[in-house]
Amino acid sequence: MEIYLDTANIEEIREAVKMGVVSGVTTNPSLMMREGRGDYRQVTQEICYLVQGPISAEVVGTDTQQMVKEAREIAQWSPYVVIKIPLTPNGLEAISILAGADSDEENICQGCTWVKDCPLDRETASDLALAFGIRTNATLLFSTNQVLLAALAGASYASVFVGRLDDAGHEGMTVVAEAAEILATYGLDTEIIAASIRHPLHVTEAALAGADVATVPYAVLQKMVRHPLTDVGIDRFLEDWKKVSS
Ligand code: E4P
């Protein structure tokens, strides 16, 4: 299972990337608001530059054509961008229209100020855009059937909001486990993202339930790293080394 970071905070992303365990990022309009950032394109392009992996950016339109139009624009920001689309009837229609659609690979990375420092050269960026096409992440999924529908419509990713389900008194992780089993049984290649992760145990449970990705807030990642016995162990090693080496 891969770990994505669920944030629009650039500093958190810089710190997490250094650890070498984060392979993507998910953002949404609420996370942008939390950072006080309305420049969605610039933030997303900086995250793509830092992470060099799948970065989800969400449409705000609710009508099918609006969503498709926004998705086509967002897809030009970077070959790494994945378009987040809420699971509604219009959202499903937009996902199915975009499934297998090409981005304009000649004009990829439009307006990106990171182009000259980016490890991705122009040619590779175009090749990746051509290979990926427009990828979607069906978001705000709260049931197994919604995951199945997202997969049938051709979504690249399906985000199950585990924490919000738990908050509402349901077993959020059951949806991930059921969906993983169904997608495997029927050979549907949509990747399941365990989203709305609240604590480290959710991450372990997501991995055991068969999620392809867990997208975690930075605070949860920090909690996953630390263990009090690791700190005690380091202190003891250092004290013992001082005694023997002095
Ligand atoms: C997923 O992609 C969402 O950004 C996120 O996980 C929502 O989590 P929340 O319930 O903490 O807002």
**Beta-strand content estimate:** 15-25%
- Number of discrete helical segments: 12
Mean pLDDT: 96
Distance from first to last alpha carbon? 45 Å
Q: How many beta-strand segments? A: 8
Helix and strand content put the structural class at: alpha/beta
Question: What is this structure, in a nutshell?
Answer:
51% of the residues lie in helices and 17% in strands. It is α/β, with parallel strands linked by helices and 246 residues long. The radius of gyration is 20 Å and the shape is globular.
Question: What topology emerges from the helices and strands here?
Answer:
Layout (H helix, E strand, L loop, with lengths): L1 E5 L3 H9 L3 E5 L2 H6 L5 H12 L3 E4 L5 H11 L6 E6 L2 H10 L23 H11 L2 E7 L2 H10 L3 E5 H6 L4 H14 L5 E5 L4 H10 L3 E4 L1 H8 L2 H18 L1
Parallel strand pairs: 1-2, 1-8, 2-3, 3-4, 4-5, 5-6, 6-7, 7-8
Helix pairs in contact: 1-3, 4-5, 5-7, 7-9, 9-10
The chain binds erythose-4-phosphate.
The site of erythose-4-phosphate has 11 residues, from strand 6 and helix 8.
Descriptors for this entry?
binds erythose-4-phosphate, alpha/beta, 246 residues, 12 helices, 8 strands, eight-stranded parallel barrel
Question: Can you offer a commentary on this structure?
Answer:
The chain is an alpha/beta fold and 246 residues long. It contains twelve helices and eight strands. An eight-stranded parallel beta barrel has the order 1-2-3-4-5-6-7-8, surrounded by eight helices. The mean pLDDT is 96. Bound molecules: erythose-4-phosphate.
